[in-house]
Structures are given as C-alpha cells and as structure tokens.
Amino acid sequence: MSAEPSGASYASAGVDIEAGDRAVDLMKEWVKKATRPEVVGGLGGFAGLFDASVLKRYERPLLASATDGVGTKVDIARKMGVYDTIGHDLVGMVVDDLVVCGAEPLFMTDYICVGKVYPERVAAIVKGIAEGCVLAGCALVGGETAEHPGLLGADEFDVAGAGTGVVEADRLLGADRIRTGDAVIAMASSGLHSNGYSLVRHVLFERAGMALDQEVAEFGRTLGEELLEPTKIYSLDCLALTRTTEVHAFSHITGGGLANNLARVVPDGLHATVDRATWTPGPVFDLVGTAGSVERLELEKTLNMGVGMIAVVPQESVDVALTTLADRGVDAWVSGEIVERGDHADAVTLTGDYAA
C-alpha cells in the first residue's frame, strides 16, 4: 500500500524561513552601527521607530522622501561574488537625492529580494547598506528580505531603499534661489556610480567580449573591480557646504547625465553653461566609449562622465565652497556659470572638449 503523499509546505515551495532568521541574526551587528540617538527600539519590530521630537527645533520642518535602487550593477556584484559594496551604492542613490533640496538624511529602510536566502550573502548586503548609512549620517531603521523562488534564480537578487530627511522650509534649496552669475561647481564622481550599467554591460561584455577578471592597465585593477567601485556619498559634504557658505542648489548626477539632471534645477529664463575642458573623465568612461563606438552625446546622456554632484553657489561663495570641499577630501572645481537664457533653447549647454 502506497504512503499518503506529504502535504505542501512553504519549504517545499522554495522558501527557507530558518535561513531568513539566520540572515537577520547575522545582520544585527551591522544595523546597530547605523544608528542615531533618535532611533527607538531595535531590529525585529514590524516598523522602525524614529523620535520625531527632534523636529521641534525647526520652525517649519519639511520632510523629504526618496526611493531608488542600484539597477543592473547588482549583476556585476553577483558575478563577482562581492556583496558588501552594493549597499553603498543604494544609500548614495537615496540620500544624495534627499540632500539636493538641502535635507539632512534621517533614516533609511531597505528591501532585498532574492531567489534563495543565503544568510551570509544577505548579511553582507546589509553590511554595505549599514556602512553607507554611517557615511551619510543617517540611521538604518529596518528593512525586508524577501525570498522569491521561481521568479528569481537561486543566485539572483535585487535591492531597493527608501529614505527620509528634513529641511527647514526657509532653507529649502532649488531653482527659486538660482541667479544670473552663479557659479556651477562640479564634484568628482568615484566612477560610474550606479547608472548606465545596461549600456556598460552591453558594450564591454557583449560587444567587446571583455571579462570581469581581465586586468586593465588604465585601472590598475580588474575590470570587475572597477565596475564595482562604490558610489560616492556626498550628503555630509553637501550639508557641510550649506553650513559654511551660501548655496543656491544642488544637482545629483544620476541617470540622464549631467545636462539633464542639472536642467532640473535651472529656472525658466536662465541657462547653465558647463565647460568640459575643466575636467578629465576617468578611464572607464573612455573605455565604454571606445569599446562600443558610443558617441559622446550618448555617453553624456547615460553616464555621469566623472561628475557625481553639482553645487550652484553665488560667485562670492566660490572660494569658501572649494576650500570646504577640499578640506573634506572632495575633488571639486568651477565648471561653469549661470547666464540669461537668451537664444539658448536648452537649460544646460556643455561646451568645449574634455581635458586630455
């Protein structure tokens, strides 16, 4: 007589609850490092708690919210087997959107979706997120790890995050503050950051046939190591700038490139000119361009080309701004200015050729 077939279970459907619990245990030590005095309680609750009484010191506090992911850069991390840097990218994408309006990042939550929970791997991802939060001055108050067998392969994963910040209403930065004659200050990126990887992967792997473990002399390391270079997190640098001198606007250079992102803070009637000759993009940008015969305009619409953040400041603030950024180890330079729109059809124009 045949045995009764066993009933279905969550485990038989591919979800390992015990592995998820193990991942939470492993990540706790890292989450504890990414905190602020206002955080209430610890990891494991249904919601992260943040003491909002801190907002009493504001006359009119405006809460800022942002959410983002890392895009197809996660595929590079998966293939490299390196999981503790991708969190820096996630934090940078979120908090540096918050700081554009002058907001101080307060806290973040994350969402990690995997095909199969490997506890050490999930913990490594959270470690990177926590380290990024420390660099940004914000707390990691919670998150979610979801196992999606059947939708994702066992080694596949994706990450997303959301952040909240606060800014005093009368210190809100943006297009309304920008004036003719303002200087455009560029801050160097650490590389590709987390945008354009669909183009990068197509060009370097599918068209050029390069390998992640291939040594590239111009990088002084392997291609994979270059592509995994974490996104630079500018939030504390930008906040320091607002405390030391007058700032009219910031622009986070992400998907769409410098011109499209800077245009988002240029008001009607004004125009930003940016001189390419004021900087030299890193070798990774040249490699993508030459390996795929990608035209400069297409590169500039897709990649940051060596500039990760822009500050627009009055001319009298330039010296203090550059000194402040230099003291904080940020490579920055005057790259352009704000002028009357005149005959310019677009809000931003890039002029000249990149410095050799």
TrEMBL record:
Q: Determine if Secreted is one of this entry's keywords.
A: no
Note whether Nucleotide-binding occurs among the keywords: yes
Any idea of its EC number?
6.3.3.1
- PurM-like C-terminal domain sequence ranges: 180-344
- UniProt KW keywords: ATP-binding, Cytoplasm, Ligase, Nucleotide-binding, Purine biosynthesis
Q: Which reaction does it catalyse?
A: 2-formamido-N(1)-(5-O-phospho-beta-D-ribosyl)acetamidine + ATP = 5-amino-1-(5-phospho-beta-D-ribosyl)imidazole + ADP + phosphate + H(+)
Subcellular location(s): the record lists: Cytoplasm
Which pathway, per its entry? Answer: Purine metabolism; IMP biosynthesis via de novo pathway; 5-amino-1-(5-phospho-D-ribosyl)imidazole from N(2)-formyl-N(1)-(5-phospho-D-ribosyl)glycinamide: step 2/2
GO molecular function annotations of the record: phosphoribosylformylglycinamidine cyclo-ligase activity
Q: What is its main location?
A: cytoplasm
Q: Where is each PurM-like N-terminal domain found?
A: 51-167
User: What HAMAP family does the record tag this protein with?
Assistant: AIRS (MF_00741)
Record family assignment: Belongs to the AIR synthase family.
* Protein name as it appears in the record: Phosphoribosylformylglycinamidine cyclo-ligase
Q: Which organism is it from?
A: Streptomyces bugieae
- Could you read off the lineage of the organism from its UniProt record? Bacteria, Bacillati, Actinomycetota, Actinomycetes, Kitasatosporales
